Amino acid sequence: MEVNIEKTLLMCKSFMKEVKIWGCLKQTGVSLRYMMEFGSNPTQKNLLISAQFLHKELPIRIARRAIELHSLPHGLSHMPPVLKVRHWYLDSFREIISFPEIKNMNDEKEFTELIKAIKVRHNNVVPTMALGVQQLKNVFEDPDEIDEFLDRFYMSRIGIRMLIGQHVELHNPNPPPNCVGYIHTNMPPVNVARNASEDARSMCYREYGSAAEVRIYGDPDFTFPYVPAHLHLMVFKLVKNSLRAVQERFMDSDEVAPPIRIIIADGIEDVTIKVSDEGGGIPRSGLPKIFTYLYSTAKNSSSVEHEPSDIGTMENVTMAGYGYGLPICRLYARYFGGDLQVISMEGYGTDAYLHLSRLGDSQEPLP
């Protein structure tokens, strides 16, 4: 019995040593333009190259996050939800490095099935991590430390899911028109904003029984290359915030709730989407906190804000959560070289400016 325990401990030490070795290797970032150009011709040769790249790249990214999850401050690493997430990362790392060298299309097919399953395993990482952080909310003397970690962690997660999802989607025998994996080469932002707004309004109706009108201003014929699911998620979160603010401000009023306005402008470098509401705004003292993970403007923040279980779906999302909407939204914007800014006029309303790079040549910001 003692021999077995000793053997298990040695195997465990050896495994963690390997995690640390991989975690020290250099990550390789890719750009939207590269993903689009490479995936535009998904030949067997290209799919094989893509799988071989992921076989080397994913363990590096996953190992880095597993190491960081082990050394968080204030006992966060020992919280059951965080331990659960860390085990997911370690299991995924083990499965990928155990997979033999990818030499032919049979290997590629098996590897693709493996990373598909890994992506599903990590579906609930955001709400699970939120639970762990929330359980220690009052312990953090310096919330910036946790915010910086979560920014790195979630940005890495966006990248991992994008790389896996893009590779898997390139196998689609009947891709939608103008789509290269997850990327739409001629995406109309007006259409995406309309769909995201309708989803947010439906949720508002379910929660409050009514929802303010959303008006969209922009050229319906304008298109640019982007990931529609990313844009849908960002606009959905911003409109959802605006709908809630307007609803709570005008709930007991005889006045008709003013509409939320979405303005889409196409510049030379950026496509900018402004979501503007008259929901009363955010106090100036609260503005520095809106991109932290432990702050919510909601009056009732009793439920975890779930990220969609898979990119492009809107299940399990609540009107108000633990304040993850804006920081996660900003990370999605920054992933392809954009950004998110929020300007508030207390007593009147809030304007959120979503900047999206239309050049597509920005490298992934690798944490």
From TrEMBL:
Keywords: ATP-binding, Endoplasmic reticulum, Kinase, Mitochondrion, Nucleotide-binding, Pyruvate, Transferase. InterPro entries: AK/P_DHK_N_sf, BCDHK/PDK_N, BCKD/PDK, HATPase_C_sf, HATPase_dom, His_kinase_dom, Sig_transdc_His_kin-like_C. The keyword Methyltransferase does not apply. Residues 231-360 form the Histidine kinase domain. Belongs to the PDK/BCKDK protein kinase family. GO terms for cellular component: endoplasmic reticulum membrane; mitochondrial matrix. It is found in: Endoplasmic reticulum membrane; Mitochondrion matrix. It catalyses: L-seryl-[pyruvate dehydrogenase E1 alpha subunit] + ATP = O-phospho-L-seryl-[pyruvate dehydrogenase E1 alpha subunit] + ADP + H(+). The keyword DNA-binding does not apply. Gene3D superfamilies: Alpha-ketoacid/pyruvate dehydrogenase kinase, N-terminal domain, Histidine kinase-like ATPase, C-terminal domain. This is Protein-serine/threonine kinase. GO terms for molecular function: ATP binding; pyruvate dehydrogenase (acetyl-transferring) kinase activity. Pfam families: BCDHK_Adom3, HATPase_c. Its EC number is 2.7.11.-. It is a multi-pass membrane protein.
